[in-house]
Amino acid sequence: MTKKSFIPIPPPAELPDPETIDVAGIVAAYLAGRIDIICVVGPTASGKTRYAVALAREIDALMPDGRRCEILSADSRQVYRDMTIGTGKDLCEYEDIPYHLIDIVEPGVVYNIWEYQRDFAAAYRDVRSRGAVPILCGGSGLYVETATCAYEFGKGAPRAEGLPEKPYYIGTLVSREERRARIDRRLDERLEEGMVDEIRALLERGVSADSLIHYDLEYKFVTQYVLGEISYDYMKERLRIAIHQFAKRQMTWFRGMERSGITIHWTLPD
RNA sequence: GGUGCGUUGGCCGAGUGGCUAGGCAUUGGUCUGCAAAACCAAGUACAGUGGUUCGAUUCCGCUACGCACCU
Q: Any atom of strand B under 7 A from CB of A125?
């Protein structure tokens, strides 16, 4: 008996109990200044956008002075124009609810968290200055923290001014099984909606294959398929797996946020 | 019915009489200027059953299952 693991096997992560979100309470807290932004987080395909829009409507109905909600995106890939189906923007779900930080840079360029913090700060100030209620919605955990956790970047860059200080986090809760099923279903839907054509058009327009491959997931695997490097079936299978793995990492990030002391109110979407 | 070959962890796949490849998937985690990134960690498998042996996943027998061929 010489080799023995000293690290105990971690128990399977228990799913938190879903909460019922007290929207009236959130509105009261917002009006009293105890909350300055509502953040909807969750893994890919968990229904964040739909939930955020529904929440916006509920809050709108409860606001006494006619103030309206606006949604700020925290998604590292939805910032790119013309990368719509592959990034799952679901723009039609917003209907009349204004949204920000989507379609703000050209595909092919490199965007980063520092720029996101700067752009978020500007959008946030803009929303507040018009008296609207900001709802941050997105699955890029680092971006969410950059917007709401007072990140300071080194290299002489000053932190953006006027970031929110009292966020209220809501998570869209789905079991691992449900999460995978939703991802698979949504992948099929987006392929039918023309995801391959969207990426083919980007390539034909001159966006480099390397930059698309760098964006990973949909853009990586579909680009490789369009270039004839992999078969359709292989593309789809590897993409499915890669999205599952990505969703797992997202959940790891959110659990890490909770471990660091942040409270996320997990609730059932739909 | 007969003969031969095969049976390795969720899957693929090496290999050995003792030190128990590897890949994929899965799960847990790290995370402050590309984050849909990059990276770390975990699980101890050899069909079943007798035997040979100090010791068998590895050798022998039988059983089961699979494949091929024969009558």
A: no
Rounded CA-CA distance A127/A68 in Å is 10
- A 10 A CB-CB count for A206 gives 7
CA A43 remoteness from chain centre: 7
CATH class of A177-246: mainly alpha
Confidence of residue A3 (pLDDT cuts 50, 70, 90): very low
ipTM of the shown complex? 0.90
Residue A1 has pLDDT above 50, yes or no: no
> Where along chain A do its domains lie?
23-175+250-267, 177-246
CB A107 within 8 A of CB A8: no
What pTM value is reported for the model?
0.93
Q: Which of residues 138-157 of A touch strand B (CB under 7 A)?
A: 139-143, 151-157
Q: Say which CATH architecture domain A23-175+250-267 belongs to.
A: 3-Layer(aba) Sandwich (3.40)
